[in-house]
Amino acid sequence: xxxxxxxxxxxxxxxxxxxxxxxxxxxxxxxxxxxxxxxxxxxxxxxxxxxxxxxxxxxxxxxxxxxxxxxxxxxxxxxxxxxxxxxxxxxxxxxxxxxxxxxxxxxxxxxxxxxxxxxxxxxxxxxxxxxxxxxxxxxxxxxxxxxxxxxxxxxxxxxxxxxxxxxxxxxxxxxxxxxxxxxxxxxxxxxxxxxxxxxxxxxxxxxxxxxxxxxxxxxxxxxxxxxxxxxxxxxxxxxxxxxxxxxxxxx
Length: 251
Prior knowledge:
Blueprint: H1 16-19, H2 22-38, H3 44-61, H4 65-71, H5 76-88, E1 93-96, E2 99-102, H6 103-129, H7 132-141, H8 146-175, H9 186-213, H10 230-236, H11 238-250
Antiparallel strand pairs: 1-2
Helix pairs in contact: 2-6, 2-7, 2-11, 3-6, 3-11, 5-6, 7-8
């Protein structure tokens, strides 16, 4: 796969966080997420300290706050769902700004928002300081199942190809005077989606046959060797270890 493939989430840099091996950062983010999920929802101060830890990582990695905030738009479905829970929830009710809300629903909404937000920010920082191809290297080093790594590898390689194909189909429709204004145009959009699926499937078949002709037997060769020293592991694990200490104080 192309070694120079970059992603919009990645911010090139030379900070200490950028230089850490990918397997160290992957394990650190995973362990941090586990600690956050294990934290009781009533410990508000613990979540504030987790946010400060992530802010310190962003500062060390020189990731601008605006970059993180813009990428947090991916969390909007969780936010909308969380806001609905107190409205439709059962149990004891309380009035907030004239609205009757469920108390258990409010706790559930807070639990989802706090933990999901911290997890999303940690993932954004990982993506901002690690190239996508390098993340796959780290996954290989951590012995993630080979099939999962291959799926992610091909998704990374061909996502832009499929998006470009979709853009060309949209331009072709619009050049013929098509405008998707209401539900009457849904059949045409559905046919385009079907055509895109067939083209993608056929491309996958051709790629698979090409791989078989080159000796593919179900396993991809290692993309490269990325070793990590004890010092690098220690630096990367500062985040989850600090979070674990906060969790210990909160219990």
